[in-house]
Design goal:
Length: 390
């Protein structure tokens, strides 16, 4: 990551994120930060927890444990870690490892944290709404003393929208399947404008103008607004999905494998479109994919996920120059190149966790092998990786 990126403010921070479904640990202790204006790539094979991470951030799931911070406000908080700390304290008390007073202090602190986590999980939007309403009132305080009817109407519109706004709507998602993510009974106009209507926009002319503007921005025409999703190709449907996500003027987009269901020629068009929109709207993007070659072209930094954990995290060029974790090397060896001579001799690296790691003595932790380059490893592996750095 260049210095410019590291100096930017952190827009999204994910701390110890866990998302469990029963005994299935879909996401298990994931940590990363995304800076404003950055494209952060999240890669890994199907089922490794990439999409679940994105859905947990946008609050489609209530997270099991950990925290999600957006613009410095905690929008997601899980309570399992606090419950486990209480259970452990009771167990330690029974075994005589801690005193009764120490146990009571640990339990009281964790109960307090549970209360705070539940409050932030459910009330972060209400607190944000109060803040936005106060801003609008402060902005219009002097203007309303001798205001025209038009100004009063503008004030009441702004106030209504501020009361309906939600912090989490500043993160929008582009879904993987462009067919399943669009309602077949709604016209394109209704699909794209739905967010504006929910937010409290009632002026039909404003809605139509905004919809036409978004359609043109994603490479469609205004005549498409009256059609239904089944009348479009896969690439066009994905463009409609992109238009729906950017009409709310979000600060961040979670793009969940937005090109994996499309033809190769269309993939390039959609990636280029995302790049253009990113620059025009100063967007921050979490780009989820399993195709490393696409991610390299599009991302500033890349996190590699395996089995619910991030195993390696580095700037894009650095990851391709120094792939250290065996799983990252395995993914890179699977990228085909348009070179028949190279393809004849290309060796696939197979990742076998049991053979590639010995964690019987010491388990792995996330360690920084180079500024900005982190790998999940123990001390012996860390020493080996440092030797192999280019």
């Amino acid at each position: 990551m260049d210095n410019d990126m590291s100096n930017r403010e952190v827009l999204l921070k994910v701390e110890h994120l866990c998302q469990f479904f029963g005994s299935n640990k879909a996401v298990n202790d994931v940590n990363f930060e995304i800076h404003k204006g950055e494209v952060f790539g999240l890669v890994g094979e199907s089922g490794c927890g990439k999409t679940t991470t994105g859905r947990s951030i946008i609050k489609l799931y209530n997270i099991t444990s950990g925290n999600v911070w957006f613009k410095g406000i905690r929008i997601g908080a899980g309570i399992l870690s606090y419950k486990e700390a209480i259970s452990q304290a009771k167990k330690d008390l029974k075994e005589g490892k801690i005193t009764s007073d120490e146990c009571s202090a640990i339990i009281a602190e964790n109960k307090k944290q549970i209360k705070l986590a539940k409050y932030d999980q459910t009330h972060c939007d209400k607190e944000y709404q109060k803040e936005q309403v106060a801003k609008v009132k402060a902005e219009y305080a002097d203007k309303l003393k001798d205001a025209t009817p038009e100004l009063r109407k503008e004030y009441s519109d702004r106030l209504r929208k501020a009361r309906k706004t939600k912090l989490v709507t500043q993160i929008q998602m582009i879904f993987q399947d462009p067919i399943a993510s669009l309602d077949p009974r709604m016209t394109v106009r209704e699909i794209i404008s739905e967010g504006l209507v929910i937010q409290g926009e009632k002026n039909k002319q404003v809605i139509n103008d905004k919809v036409y503007q978004m359609l043109e921005l994603v490479g469609l025409v205004r005549e498409h607004a009256g059609r239904y999703p089944h009348e479009f190709s896969g690439g066009q449907r994905q463009r409609i999905g992109i238009a729906r996500s950017i009409i709310m003027n979000p600060e961040m987009i979670i793009a969940d494998e937005p090109v994996s269901a499309l033809d190769v020629s269309i993939q390039a068009q959609v990636i280029n479109l995302l790049n253009d929109i990113r620059e025009k709207m100063n967007l921050t993007i979490l780009f989820i994919a399993h195709d490393l070659s696409v991610v390299k072209y599009f991302s500033d930094r890349i996190g590699v996920m395996y089995y619910g954990k991030i195993v390696e995290l580095a700037p894009s060029d650095e990851l391709f120059l120094n792939p250290l974790h065996p799983y990252t090397r395995s993914l890179l060896s699977a990228i085909p190149l348009p070179d028949p001579e190279y393809e004849k001799t290309r060796k696939r690296i197979v990742y076998n966790p049991l053979a590639d790691h010995d964690y019987s003595v010491e388990g792995p932790t996330m360690r920084e092998v180079k500024p900005g380059h982190f790998v999940l490893c123990n001390q012996a592996e860390y020493d080996e990786y440092i030797k192999n750095l280019k």
